[in-house]
Specification:
Elements: E1 2-6, H1 10-25, E2 34-39, E3 43-45, E4 59-61, H2 63-68, E5 72-75, E6 77-82, E7 87-91, E8 97-101, E9 104-107, E10 111-113, H3 121-124, E11 125-126, H4 131-143, H5 151-154, E12 155-159, H6 163-180, E13 187-192, H7 206-216, E14 218-222, E15 226-230, E16 233-236, E17 241-243, E18 246-249, E19 253-255, E20 272-273, E21 286-288, E22 293-294, H8 308-327, E23 340-344, E24 350-354, E25 359-363, H9 364-378, H10 386-391
Parallel strand pairs: 1-2, 1-9, 2-5, 9-21, 11-18, 12-13, 12-18, 13-14, 20-22
Antiparallel strand pairs: 3-4, 6-7, 7-8, 10-19, 15-16, 16-17, 23-24, 24-25
Helix pairs in contact: 1-8
Length: about 400
Amino acid sequence: MRLVIIGAGFAGMYAALSAARLRDIKGASPDKLEIALVAPQPTLVVRPRLYEPKPETLTAPLLDVLKAVDVVYVQGSAETVDVKAREVGIVTSGGKRTRLSYDRLVVATGSRLFRPNIPGLAEHGFSVDTLDDAIALDRHLQHLVSWPVSDMRDTVVVAGGGFTGIEAATEMPARLRESLGRDARPRVIIVERNAAIAPDMGEAARPIIVDALKHVGVETRLGVGVASLDKSGVTLSDGERIATATVIWAAGIRAAPLTAQIRAERDNFGRLLVDRDLRVAGVAGVFATGDAARAACDDAGNYALMSCQHATRMGAFAGNNAAAELLGAPTRPYRQKAYVTCLDLGEAGALFTRGWERKVEMVGDKAKKTKKEINTVWIYPPLAERAAALASADPERVTDL
């Protein structure tokens, strides 16, 4: 029997570890149940940190961890999914195509930044969505020092005032001073279509965020969007023109395109609808998890967000349940009642909230210490030691805050 997992992000990593954990508990050998993880590289890209400088350092190797728990790594990108033949079509970095059969499949393909057809966005926009995008932005910022001093050089516009946009924007003044010199006077502007900044963070958190933006010198343009970009600036939907060489697009994400290969119902974000065991509705043998799945967290109407916090636990449940079906073990319905946010606010510290109602628990330096611990310890893979790696993937404990 073979369980195939597509994706080496947070959900895919924990799906593999959790499946291996159940296989170990049931006393099944790797020969009886092969667990294979398909990804372009055996690395975890720490996307929640890609707003920081030196993004090339923000990856963690997975190969030794996978070997420690007898998970087979398959190098390549999943290109097709044939649910009737139960096969995944894979293309390697060299262009070679092959097919991998499965008895159970876990789709953990993550998400991609949504880039609308705005004139100039593809040619002139930056992002922190992928490692390559973040590296390109970092190199651009470092190169700005060679440009003549001007408003265009010293201004950064961040399109999107949600979680990602705020973290990118509040980090940007310090990054610009690092690139341009301590005497630089950077100007950072968030453009948000909604009437308020941080539209999803709630009334209690928003004044803290607004104060933090003022503290670090970030301006806002609310109730407007980006109409067009060119090499020297951006034009907003209300006609305002801002001279800038740096526009960072942070205005929403969608499930990775591979989900469209599976003929099943999806939501507006492209996520596959799943049941409480994370099975894709109406598709035998296929589970979806992380940003690829729309999953209920509880019985109160809350659904998992496209975040590493939800992806880690969802991955653990998906891997466990896919393996359970093959090993004749009971499945465990996914649930995740605990939910916290920890929003980095640059030199203003951070903001920590708990619950779907975003109850504020910590702010400033205290919250920043927690954010640093999350970013540098909690979300990284376990040690490449069998017992520790398997123990880390207990579905009932992953991200149980």
